[in-house]
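[Q] Does anyone have a clean structure-token version of this?
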Amino acid sequence: MAKSRLKVFISQSHKDDRLADAVTDLLKETFRLSSKEIRCTSLPQYGFKPGSNIEHEILQDVESSEVVIVLITPNSLSNEWVHSEVGATKALKRPLFPLLAGVDGTQLKGFLRSVNSLSADNMDQLNFFLESCSRTFNLKTQKWSSDKLIKRLKSKVIKLANKTRNNKEATTQSYKTPKILRKKIQAQATVDAAGGLQTSRIFLKKGQKFLLEPEGRIHLASDQVDNFARALKPLIVKHADGWGWTKEIKDRYKPKEPVEETIFYRGWIGPEGEVQSSDMLEKCKLRPTEKWGALLAVILPVKASSWADPFYILESNNMQVEDLLLVPERTVITAGRDGWLTFIVNDAVISPYSPSEDGKVFYRALEKAKQAASHNRHQVPQILPLSLAFYADNLGAFRVNVTVYPIKS
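[A] Here you go.
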């Protein structure tokens, strides 16, 4: 039986479940939608089945939905899942409706700032929101829906939205800003070579100094690591010929003629990166001016998801690739803004937000290939998201010793 097409995908913070539940009830009654036609991941009745690959399911659902509604509240402004879902919506060119509760349009950043948003705490705007859904996204108001019930559900949404606005504990961040440090602290962060932006638990204040001491090795081509391991035994057999190998061993590990699989271009590299030239991806590097595999650090005002598009995260926070700082060795840095210490390895990022035209074109090509092979998931690797596809064959990790110095009074 074919999977029913989603009508609505609702993106929100799990801290706003009551508001999301009220909005969902309003949509169901107004448009006579079934639970299977709505996805709201934090609500059990509209979420995923146990054991689901959440990241994969989210991208599939965003792509198949007729409309994506994002509930913008103080809790969701810096929620990493909401940022990622909004990024996926833009990348997949799906219709997006921001519905505000407890915030106003001036607090929106990046892509959301350019999209017309409506307030959930205003009856006129809530009515216009529903009319727009009906007119623009092929969701038809059902005649048998109860006017009294819909009016009551609208009032509930408005009440909860106003409660969000008036909640004294709500802030414009989903985290509490840590207290100013009065003494030096030390910590460690692990940076996986196969991951995207990786947020540490270290929050820094503007002007605060911190010391980074990286160590470890990574590799940017797992296939060459595998080929190298396979070549070792034939080399041992060949160059230790007096050891008395059996015929079976000699036949099994005959030296191979030099072919592509026995030529190794890349080695294990440290945080300084390696000088290497790519035949296709040179302009797609996250930081084109730095070496492949170099360790980069950045201070982000939000916690970023490791599967989020790095270029989208930078753009949505009004930042540039130049804000990604090279950490080749023991390095002292002064924080240029308040935010979370975040790391990433310098590799190719294929993204619709890329400053490089190559990155944009390659992303569209992968999207086209994915759509063409949608009937057979084995034809196109299920790498999610596509923007980090070339991180998938990386191995190893860096470990960074972090010393944060107190702010002088």
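[Q] Thanks! Anything notable?
[A] The longest strand covers residues 209-219.
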